[in-house]
Amino acid sequence: MRKKLLIFFTFILASCSEKADLIVYNANIYTVNSSGEQVSSFAVKDGKFIYVGDDSVMSKYSSSNIINAEGLPLYPGFIDSHAHFYNLGFFNDQVDIKGTKSFREVVQKVKDYDKLNNKKFIIGRGWDQNDWDIKSFPTNKLLNEAFPDKAIVLRRIDGHAYIVNDYALSLAGIDENSKIDGGEFVKLNGKLTGVLIDNAMELVNNIIPDPSKEESIKALMAAQKIAFENGLTSVSEAGISRKQIELIDSLHKSGILKIKIYAMIENGPDVDYYIKNGPYKTDRLNVRSIKVYADGALGSRGASMINEYSDRKGYFGIIRTPIDSIKSLAFKLAGTKFQMNTHAIGDNANRFVLKAYRDALFNYRDPRWRIEHAQVVNEEDIKLFNEKIIPSVQPTHATSDMYWLYDRIGKKRAKHAYAYKELLEKSSVIAFGTDFPVEEVSPFMTFYSATVRKDKDGYPDDGFQVENIIGRGDALYAMTIHGAYANFEEDEKGSIEVGKSADFIILDNDIIGSVESRIPNTKVVATFVEGELVFNRRYN
Ligand SMILES: [Zn+2]
C-alpha cells in the first residue's frame, strides 16, 4: 500500500500566492496537449485548470485541498465515444446470460432468476451462439416449456437479436405471416423460432413495460458509478430519446448526475424537434447529433454485405434504414449544426453511408460526421474516409469477433475489417469507444485491444491482424482529445491544459510505459470531474 493517494486538508496561509480549489503535485501527468508534454503538477479553480506545469505550483498557489500523487500516472478523464449508458444502468434488473455455453444453460439461468424475482416480464441479456457447441440460432422450445405464461425476452450480446418465448410473440402480435423491413423473424421449417433480428425486435420492444422515472434515475446513477470506477468522465450516448435526454439534463441540474454526456438523438420523431430548436448545450450535456442505424451486426448476420455471407449462402444481411432515407437525412442535416452518426458494420452499409456523406457534405467544411463501428470496409471504399468523416470504433469488438470472423465473411474481406490504422491514416482522427454494455466498460481493455490486438489470455500469440495495431500514443488520443474532437468539444476537454475542464484520472499503472500484459488489469485510483473527486478507490 505504498502508492496511496494522500489528500491533505490543510489550510496553508500564504500571503502572496493565489488561492486554488485543488492542487495536485508529484504526479506523472500526460497532458495530451499538442506537444505531448508530461508535467508533474497543476492547480484547479472553479472546475478548470488554472496552472499546468512543475512542482513550483506550491509556491504560486495555495489551497486547502492538496494531493500528493506520489508519482502515479495521471491522464485526462477518458471519453467513451460510443456507448449505451442509459441501458447499462438497467442491467441489475435483468438476467445475466453472458458467457453461457449452451441454450440449455441460458434457460436454466432464467429459471433460477425467476425463482428469486417475481416478475411478470423477464428480460435477459448477453447470449452469444458463437460461444456455444451448436453455433446456429436456437429455437425457443425449451423456453416455452419452462415459461408457458410469462413473457421472456433475451437479448443477444450485440443487442441486434432477441430470442423470445411464444407467449411474448403472441403478446407482440407476431405470427408466421409477420413481415418487416430491415429485420427478420427467423423460421425453421416454416415455423417461428422466437429469434428476432434487428427491426423485428421493435414489435417486442413495444410490449416491454416502460421503466418508471424512479427506475430510470436509479439506472442512470448505477451507470454513472460504473463509469467513474472505470475512469470515464464523458460518455457519448449512442441514441436516446428526447424524454431520456431531458431526464439526464434535469439530473445534471439537480447535481446528482455529474458525468458528462454527449447525447446522440435517436433517429425518430424527436429529430425534427431538435432541428427546429437547434443544438442544446450545458457544461455537462451536449445534444447536436443524430444516431442512425444503416444495418445490423455481424454476430447475428445482420450486417449488410456487398457479397453473400461465407457461412450463409445467398444471404447479404439487413439494411435497417433504406438507402434513400439515409441520403435524404444526410442532405437535410448537411446545412445544419447537427452531426450525423451512422452505425455501419457491413461493407455494403459502409459503402452507401460513405457515399451519402460524400455527396451531402460536398460543400461543407469541418462537419465531423461519424461512421459508428466502421467494421468491414471494402478495400475500394477506404479512401472515402477523409478529414470530414471520423471513424468511431470499438477495439474490443475486434478481439471479441476474431474467433468466428473468418467463418462469417472469409479471410479476404476480413483483411479490411477492424482496420483501425488504415482508417486513422485516412481520417487523421479516430475515436474509441466500447459500445458498452455490448462489451465491458473498461477503457483499459479498449486500449489493450487496440495496441496489442489480443484477448485477455494473450490469444492469438502474434496478435490479430497486427498490421492494424494503433500505437499507444494514438490510442490515448483516441480515448481523450480525439473523443472530444469527435464531439466538437476539444476546446473544453480532452487534455490537461489551462482553461479546460479539470476532468482527470489517476491510475495505478502507466498504460503508456507498462508491459502489455498488465494493461487490462490497470485500476483507476481516483476520478475527478470539474475538479471534484467523484471516485476514490482508497475509500471503497
Ligand atoms: Zn451501439
- Distance N to C terminus: 14 Å
- Shape descriptor reads globular
What kind of sheet is the major sheet? 9 strands, mixed
| Poorly predicted residue ranges | 6-15
So how many helices?
17
Q: What is the beta-strand fraction?
A: 15-25%
State the helical fraction: 25-40%
Q: Total number of β-strand segments?
A: 28
What structural class is derived from the secondary structure elements?
Answer: alpha/beta
Q: On the 0-100 scale, what is the average pLDDT?
A: 94
Radius of gyration: 24 Å
Structure description:
The chain is of the alpha/beta class and 540 residues long. Helix content is 28%, strand content 25%. The strands form five sheets. Strands 11, 18, 19, 20, 21, 22, 23, 24 and 25 form a nine-stranded mixed sheet that branches. A six-stranded mixed sheet has the order 5-4-10-26-27-28, with helices on one face. It has a six-stranded mixed sheet with strand order 12-13-14-15-17-16. Helix 10 packs parallel to helix 11, helix 12 (395-401) packs across helix 15 (443-452) and helix 15 (443-452) runs antiparallel to helix 16 (472-479). The chain starts with 5 loop residues before the first strand and ends with a strand.
Layout: helices, strands, pairs:
Layout: E1 6-8, E2 18-19, E3 22-25, E4 28-30, E5 38-39, E6 41-45, E7 48-53, H1 57-60, E8 61-62, E9 66-68, E10 73-76, E11 78-83, H2 85-88, E12 95-96, H3 103-116, E13 121-127, H4 141-146, E14 151-156, E15 161-164, H5 166-171, E16 183-188, E17 191-198, H6 201-205, H7 213-229, E18 232-240, H8 242-254, E19 260-266, H9 270-277, E20 280-281, E21 285-293, H10 323-334, E22 339-344, H11 347-360, E23 369-373, E24 389-393, H12 395-401, H13 405-414, H14 420-427, E25 431-432, H15 443-452, H16 472-479, H17 481-486, E26 504-507, E27 524-529, E28 532-536
Parallel strand pairs: 2-8, 3-9, 4-10, 11-18, 12-13, 13-14, 18-19, 19-21, 21-22, 22-23, 23-24, 24-25
Antiparallel strand pairs: 1-9, 3-6, 4-5, 6-7, 10-26, 14-15, 15-17, 16-17, 20-21, 26-27, 27-28
Helix pairs in contact: 10-11, 12-15, 15-16
The protein binds zinc ion.
